[in-house]
Amino acid sequence: QVQLVESGGGLVQAGGSLRLSCAASGLTFSSYPMGWFRQAPGKEREFVAFINWNGGSTVYGDSVKGRFTISRDNAKNSVYLQIDSLKPEDTAVYYCARHKVRYGSNWYRSSTDYAYWGQGTQVTVSS
Description:
Helices cover 0% and strands 49% of the residues. The protein has 127 residues and is mostly beta strands. β4 and β5 form a beta hairpin.
């Protein structure tokens, strides 16, 4: 059974930090890039961060650059998102996803580039 399970969300004050985790099982993890997306109520799903299969390359959405850090531990089949300097506009459900293409491709910002998704974890930032 393919599973991506996010955890670590919660309610936090503006300026605070959270560390989201995503644990993968039932699928090949270590040779695939991973991504984080988020979706706020009434808005489209937004690209947040990407990490290549070995963690050597990362890319961030413009709205989170300098505040979010993606990392992975292939030995633990896990990917993480460290979120610092949280803002109310970061409030959303955060999803991790596994890329469609082994070892990745040049396409990674669209949700259609990913084959498997977690159920999401809610992040709420109060002002």
